[in-house]
Amino acid sequence: MKTRTKGIILLFSLLLSLLSCSGSDSGVSFNKGNYTAQADGKYGPVTVEVEFSEKQIKKITVDASGETPAIAGTVVERLPEAIIENQSLAIDALAGATLTSEAVLAAVEDCVVQAGADPALLKGETEKGPDEEIQTGVVIVGGGASGSAAAVSAAEAGAETLLLEMTASPAGQGTQAGGAFGTNSTQQIEQGREVDGKWFYDQFMATGNYQVNGGLLSRIIQRSGETIDWLIAHGANMILAHPATGGYYEHKLTHPNSTLHGYVDGGTVAIKALHQSVIDAGGKVLYETEVEDILLEDGRVSGVIARKADGGTLTVKADAVILTTGGFGGNEELVAEYFGEGFGRSRVGTNIGTGIKLAQKAGGDADYANAITMHYGVSRGGTGWTTPLNSALLNPYLHVDVDGNRFMNEESFIFEPIKSSNVLKSLPGRTAWEIFDSRMINVVAESGYAALTDVFAGELATDPTVFIEVGHTVDTSKRYEQSHTPADVMPDIEKYIEKGTIVRAESPEELAEALGMNHLADTIARYNELAELGEDLDHFKSSQYLEKLEGTLYAVKITPSVFLGTLGGIRINPYCEVVDYNGKAVPGLYAAGAETSGVYSDSYVYFEGGTLGYAYGSGRIAGESAVALVK
Q1: Which of 471, 404, 128 is nearest to 267 (CA)?
Q2: What pLDDT band is residue 21 in, cutting at 50, 70 and 90?
Q3: Which CA distances in Å does 71 have to 10, 168, 234, 438?
Q4: Is the pLDDT of residue 4 over 70?
Q5: Which of 341, 382, 403, 488 is the least crowded, having the fewest Cβ atoms under 10 Å away?
Q6: Interior/surface letters 449-484, b for 16+ CB within 10 angstroms, e for the rest
Q7: Least confident span in 113-122, 171-180, 249-258, 467-476
Q8: Is the separation of the CB atoms in 119 and 26 below 8 Å?
Q9: Which residues are registered as beta bridge partners of 585?
Q10: DSSP code of 569?
């Protein structure tokens, strides 16, 4: 997954008159009229317009065009409705959309002030709902990809199944991903594009430095094609995609056939279809139900305790519990504690570490320190993904660390986003600078960025892959056309020079001074020597990418980008049973997906769809294992 959706307008007006509004008078006096305010969401500004009568908040219109549609759409629909119904600002942020929710609440509060009222008077407690207790066979905590697979697997096997999701609609990394890996699916077989499972196995093993759970990994890989077919049968529409669909040249050179199955309708639609399959099989799905504790009885797990949307407590007694809450990237405090400051919060804010905490309480071998961060790609000065400037910078120009030292063969990582992220995360300040000159600008202006590296040539252009990732349509034929279209990147360069993420200079010495680098001038001089020689004696980069740096020079700040979340934390066995510190199964407790350890060591794999394929595959196994226990 590499970009977020841009520019999709989510404009939803809630028109509620006195007759339709279920809320009573607020007890607060307003200056009647319409007021507008704006607050920062996760990706951009959120604008609200509020209509007040003398005694009520009457109407709220929200424009969240800068936010991710699948998340913001729920906020736009649900949050204003709750404010109006309760005539209150004491409304919890919707799980999974905390920053967008907080922006809406802050903007509405601003409007309240403009209307001459005190917001504190609208922040009283809302009435709490009743407590409940229910009994089920299998309860799944988390309704993302792995949880949905576990729930479908359990429900279709005849177990009484309950899926609990803390958000108001499907969320998780599975809704953001573009697709899942698979070997010998029906589509691969029909198109003559089978992939030997050994290739996937070797990729996982090599990337994980053989510190992986081979038993679990092998089970998931061997069934991965079957899992793709199973997902499609349950409404998750997927299409076989070219392995270099994301625009990574290395994938064209190293991947056998088509390894990725992309979401045709997007991840949110796919997971909604899986939830419907749970219901169709006799199971239940409860949204806005956040699990807060786990129940233990006679040495085994016996259920969970959750908080409902109305604030009431839901106690679930169950024969088996499956944890599928997706890591802790959304918990900024935990991320800072275990990985250091500066990472912030992951794209999926609901992944807050719940599953790891519950597994720990149950005696499982679980620890936040066992996880790694998953970053996909790098930010090149904040340049927009797929823009001509950003795409032109996806080439192996000279890269240096914060003191001007060249640190590796740029060619070996620049076309593979995971390698890029891994390298940058290992550098001081998790920062590097990419150096180029006017040649790049001129080439793109004359011929388009394909003249630097023609990533989308061949099959990607003539037999395009089209699917949806993070709500954004990926069409490789359009990317091919764009890459061959001449473009003036100077306006963008000037914009980022003004922001300070691109620095311009007329000599290596001037650039070194501007960046405060002791070794940059010497590094550029050595690099130019190698370019003249036509051989990279220092880092073995191909001669085709050795170009002297002359004239006006530019440096682009690059850092890890797209913090997707964390991978690992709970140790499980090949049956997805949570194990204790002696390697023995914790009775009644299972886990799957991104919060489990065993498939990754310290890096994501170098092919697309690894995490989603693992999530669905491990979810199926967890569901089957839980049913075997129940029956």
Answers
A1: 471
A2: very low
A3: 10, 9, 23, 41
A4: no
A5: 341
A6: bbebbbbbeeebbeebbebbbbbbebebeebbebbb
A7: 467-476
A8: no
A9: 579
A10: -
Sign of the Cα pseudo-torsion (227, 328, 106, 164, in order): positive
Verify that 145 and 253 share a domain, yes or no: yes
Residues, the chain, total? 631
pLDDT over threshold 90, residue 345: no
One domain, residues 402 and 539: yes
pTM of the model: 0.83
Residue 220 lies in a domain: yes
- Give the Cα separation of 311 and 119 in Å (integer): 22
**pLDDT at 24 exceeding the cut of 90:** no
Q: Do 104 and 46 contact (CB within 8 A), yes or no?
A: yes
Q: Is 108 helix (H, G, I), strand (E, B) or coil?
A: helix
- State yes or no: pLDDT of 13 exceeds 50: no
Does one domain contain both 385 and 320?
A: no
Q: For residues 58 and 619, what is the distance between their CA atoms, to the nearest angstrom?
A: 45
pLDDT bin (cut points 50, 70, 90) of residue 413 is confident
So what's the pLDDT on residue 125?
A: 62
What is the domain-level CATH number for residue 549?
3.90.700.10
Number of domains, the chain: 3
Please report whether residue 618 resides in a domain.
yes
How many whole angstroms separate alpha carbon 435 and alpha carbon 453?
17
Segment 255-283 shows an average pLDDT of: 93
Tell me: do 64 and 148 sit in the same domain.
no
CB-based contact 626:590 (threshold 8 Å): yes
Q: Helices (H) and strands (E) in the chain — how many of each?
A: 21, 26
Handedness of CA 371, 377, 380, 382 (dihedral sign): negative
Q: Please, which residues have CB within 8 angstroms of residue 253's CB and are 6 or more apart in sequence?
A: none
Per-residue pLDDT for 322 more than 60?
A: yes
* Cβ–Cβ under 8 Å, residues 227 and 182: yes
Segments forming the whole domain that contains residue 187:
132-374+563-630
Residues 6+ apart with CB under 8 A from 378: 417, 420, 421, 424, 558, 559, 560, 561
Same domain, 531 and 420: yes
Query: If you average pLDDT over residues 382-393, what whole number do you get?
Result: 91
Supply the DSSP symbol for 223. T
Q: Is 264 exposed, middle or buried (0-12, 13-18, 19+ CB in 10 A)?
A: middle
d(CA 252, CA 265): 25
Residue 5 lies in a domain: no
- pLDDT confidence band for 39 (50 / 70 / 90): confident
User: Is 152 found in the same domain as 21?
Assistant: no
Return d(Cα 34, Cα 31) in angstroms, integer.
9
